UniProtKB/TrEMBL annotation, chains A, B:
Record: residues binding Mg(2+): 224, 248, 252
Cofactor note: Binds 1 Mg(2+) or Mn(2+) ion per subunit.
Catalyzed reactions per annotation: (2R,3S)-3-isopropylmalate + NAD(+) = 4-methyl-2-oxopentanoate + CO2 + NADH
Pathway(s) of this molecule: Amino-acid biosynthesis; L-leucine biosynthesis; L-leucine from 3-methyl-2-oxobutanoate: step 3/4
Record's protein name: 3-isopropylmalate dehydrogenase
Keyword Oxidoreductase: yes
Function text: Catalyzes the oxidation of 3-carboxy-2-hydroxy-4-methylpentanoate (3-isopropylmalate) to 3-carboxy-4-methyl-2-oxopentanoate. The product decarboxylates to 4-methyl-2 oxopentanoate.
Length: 351, 351
């Protein structure tokens, strides 16, 4: 597959630009001399842009981004507690707005404990699963409100919205993903005994789609029990499908047990291809270590592997994953700078 | 303090009656010859009762329970997937109904990694914290609904309700608890960047009450980040205050890292004393091992320690806790029956 891929690049804040730099270095190495040309457009978005212009994400930004085939994002968010950011919710106004406007209904988060990586678990076993987190519904829809704010009679509500349309499409994606993996196992995580309406919709949808995938083994866990298994027997998981909020919680925990969110990549995917999908490390902007050249770019580089795979460049994707795995295996305890890690991985690809 | 304590006992289903039997054995040992007499009333509630009578919790049951000073509950819930229970949601209709009707706005869940207990974490450090989980609001209120059920146009909503009244009282309890502990540290866990209305209410309430507790150090974590710290640095926690759903998730994870929910006790507390508080192990009815006499009654026995403390019987409570800690320390890998564990702990108290 050849041609030109129009890539929107959002380096963002803090360590974002540093890790994106290395991710692009690796992208350059793996596509060098190939048929596919990546044409990059940088977008200045995030806390820094907000502080400069007062804009979080304008309609113009959004329209321009939509003209692209895919997005690579570093991390967005300013220094916690910065009074100048008090009015802005960069996460909601930028990150979540992109996920919603670009209909990223699959938030794909693989968890692999690579050989050589230290887990906080004493006996992690083989950790190799993916979380398919719904990305456009649940309590993330912004459907809350409050009355009598600041008085003793205040009531603040948040509404989790779940639709057959939204649940079915992400469940179908998860079944297809499970069916394509050797173990072919799907675990629905929810809280059906308490969130009975949403839970019932999720459960019935999984049961219905399951009938089309006779090779896929299906089980169910309440979200509280799922956190227990993630620390006592993570090897039991293959594909997890869950709602937006439970997915947020489980993937941070999953990242932690597989060596830290410094290694966790994610894809915000619009499988229909109507809008560009967005690839980003799970970690944040980490202002405390920004500008020092010490951030670990591995998660950003693994996000490039997800991006390549999404674009159908399976071979290039596998090259990046293998180079990262090889680098991780030989890392040991050595401290390297951000660019040393990027250089090492890019060199392996070139070799 | 002398007198009579009217104790409602709900053994429940599965291993519930077995572990409650040992808990009562220990209660008997620690109160033997003392000033306080425990007058017990057994209540037959749970899946077994439902299958027999069709009732989950009648108004009569509820009125009778309210006549008591405290409740000891084993575990409720039938065999998962039992078709005869398909229509009944025992958790909602019994456990949650009791918590709501008896205004158990504090769900208190201590996590202690006792010497001698194996944690799934490689380097757990000193684990000794309590989670103060709100018990009467959040997405647990049963305020959901669905339209067009079973059609492609289905919408299923769940509403999280949070009030200044409800948040303030549990936050006050948490501050008082933190203030009474040596480290005096309180961590609010929420998801303020996404659940902005509920999050803002929780955050403002904590900030306001903090001004009355100058000795208490306060910090904040998003729920996703909190799960990371629970596996990478649980020693950082002293008192966590959080909403009903986040508390449900975090306390199962907390139980797992401190040696399993077989050791985790909880109190559903109405601090006003208007209604009886209810003490229960965090684990469920575990039908798979029921009737074999092999369930670990430790969590139920530790729930008795919480119950005694709640009733102002601090010395008796400490005796139970110490006996449990000593038993755990000497347990090693030996397999003991349910009653052997109860006997051993009761014997230590008598000695
Ligand atoms: C920053 C925040 C809004 C976001 C989320 O909750 O989805 C983050 O935690 C994530 O998981 O990507
Ligand atoms: C059984 C269920 C309704 C309950 C809850 O969600 O509160 C349980 O998980 C718990 O933590 O006590």
């Amino acid at each position: 597959m050849g041609g030109t891929v129009k890539l929107a690049v959002i380096p963002g804040d803090g360590i974002g630009p540093e890790v994106v730099g290395e991710a692009l270095k690796v992208l350059g190495a793996v596509t060098a001399g190939g048929d596919t040309v990546f044409e990059q457009t940088p977008f200045s978005l995030g806390a820094a842009r907000y502080l400069e212009t007062g804009d979080v994400l304008t309609d113009g930004d959004l329209d321009a981004i939509k003209e692209h085939d895919a997005i690579l994002l570093g991390a967005v968010g300013g220094v916690p507690g910065d009074p100048r950011l008090a009015g802005a919710n960069i996460e909601r106004g930028l990150l979540l707005k992109l996920r919603f406007e670009l209909d990223h209904y699959v938030n794909l988060r693989p968890s692999v404990l690579h050989p050589g990586v230290v887990s906080p678990l004493a006996n992690p076993g083989e950790v190799d699963f993916i979380v398919v987190r719904e990305g456009t519904e649940g309590p993330y829809v912004g459907n809350g409100g409050a009355i009598r704010v600041g008085t003793p009679a205040e009531v603040a509500n948040e509404v989790s919205v779940n639709t057959a349309y939204g649940v079915e499409r992400v469940v179908r994606y998860a079944f297809a993903a499970a069916n394509a993996r050797p173990r072919k196992k799907l675990t629905l995580v929810h809280k059906t005994n308490v969130l009975v309406f949403a839970g019932s919709l999720w459960k019935r949808t999984v049961d219905a789609v399951a009938s089309e995938y006779s090779d896929v083994t299906v089980d169910y866990l309440h979200v509280d029990a799922a956190t227990i298994f993630l620390v006592t027997d993570p090897a039991r998981f293959d594909v997890i499908v869950t709602d937006n909020l439970f997915g947020d919680i489980l993937t941070d925990l999953a990242g932690a047990i597989s060596g830290g969110i410094g290694l966790a990549a994610s894809g915000n995917i619009n499988p229909d291809g109507r809008f560009p999908s967005m690839f980003e490390p799970v970690h944040g902007s980490a202002p405390d270590i920004a500008g020092k050249g010490i951030a670990d770019p591995t998660a950003a580089i693994l996000s490039v592997a997800l991006l390549l795979d999404h674009l159908g460049l399976a071979e290039a994707s596998a090259k990046v994953s293998r180079a990262v795995a090889a680098d991780i295996a030989e890392r040991g305890g050595a401290t390297r700078t951000t660019s040393e890690v990027g250089d090492a991985i890019a060199a392996r690809i070139g070799a």
